[in-house]
Structure formats: C-alpha cells, structure tokens
Amino acid sequence: MTQELWTAVDEYSNALLVGADPALDAARERSQQSGLPDIAVSPSQGKFLSLLARIHGAKKILEFGALGGYSTIWLARALPADGRLITLEADPKHADVAKANIASAGFEKLVDVRVGKALDTLPKIDAEGPFDFVFIDADKANIPAYFTWTLEHSHPGSVIVVDNVVRDGRVIEAESTDPSIQGIRRFNEMLAKEPRVSATTIQTVGSKGYDGFTLAVVNA
C-alpha cells in the first residue's frame, strides 16, 4: 500500500461523494495563497465531521484550531439556523484568513473566531457551554488540558473528536521525546481511566497520509 494509492482512492471517492464545492475550494485556495500550512482536514474528513455533527443534532460546537477555517465551514454546515460555533485559533494571521473564508461561505453570523492561545481563551468562554460537539485539532502537546476542559463543559451525550492521534504510527513510541507524541499518549492514558466517556481510536489513511482520530461520547 502506498501514499499514491491512498490519495487516488480519496480522489475517486471525493469526486463521487463530495464533489466540487465553490465555498470550500475557495477557502482552501485562499489559505494556500496566504501561506498557511497544508494541514487542514481532507474533503472526506471534513464531510465526515459534518455528518457526525448532523447525526448528533449539535447546536453548540467548539473547535480547537481554526487554521484557515476549512473544517470550521464543514462543521458550520451541520448547524441549525439558531446554532453557534466557537473556533479557537492561536495565530492572528491564520485567524484573519479563517474569518474571511467563513464570511465568504456565509457563516459569519453563526461562527465566532476567538484569537489567542486556547489555554488563555478557554476561561473567557466558560459560560458558553456546555457544548454538544467538540473538535480538537490544535497543538497536540496540550490535548490533555483541552480534553480536561472540554469534559467539564460537556453534557451527557456530547461528542468529542480529537484529530491526528496516530502520527504515522509514532504514538506507540513510549520513549519519544516529541512533545506531540507525549501529549497524545497522556491523553490516551487519561481516556483509559476516565469513566465519564466511552471512546475509541480509528486509524486512517488517505491524501493526508497515515494518521487517525479518537471519537469519545460523554456517558449519561
């Protein structure tokens, strides 16, 4: 199995099930032209997130890591007219691009982009919860802290998705000195001991390479 094959399968399924999308294509193009790193979710992953949020009937969504707003737009599409999405972005340049993309996609009234390090921003949104759906796609070293805060601002049935938790398989490297790997491993250890959630991790391959996501549901 090769990266070329994974990408070809993504392109095949995206052409059939996602298709051309002017708003999302424009968001990706603006992000590239602005020099943002090419680390946003793929089209199939974005639609998967949107479908999860729709299935759940989410009305209040929190996202860690807006980047250029690509995944934000997918999540906003799952919201009802009276829904609300708060997305956190540490980099002011990235946040400006995200705001432009979100506005162009027609979600300016539903989405609130908060600029600053998430750990500094979270205390300012304490009263905004509990959240129905949370997507954690920010710096991996701080995932344990993000998860802890999220769990305290969720309710029974809340869905939590954490992205990039496999890292080309390096998550199994217990002796790794990479802060991202150690952050994910601490998060996994927390999950294993946390009775308030039911969770699983799914490995993924595709145009974004070999990685995976963790899906958790807050227990009743």
From TrEMBL:
SUPFAM superfamilies: S-adenosyl-L-methionine-dependent methyltransferases
Pfam families: Methyltransf_3 (PF01596)
Organism: Silvibacterium bohemicum
Domain of life: Bacteria
Matches recorded under PANTHER family: CAFFEOYL-COA O-METHYLTRANSFERASE 3-RELATED, O-METHYLTRANSFERASE-RELATED
Record protein name field: Putative O-methyltransferase YrrM
Any GO molecular function: S-adenosylmethionine-dependent methyltransferase activity
Key words, A-Z: Methyltransferase, S-adenosyl-L-methionine, Transferase
GO BP annotations listed: methylation
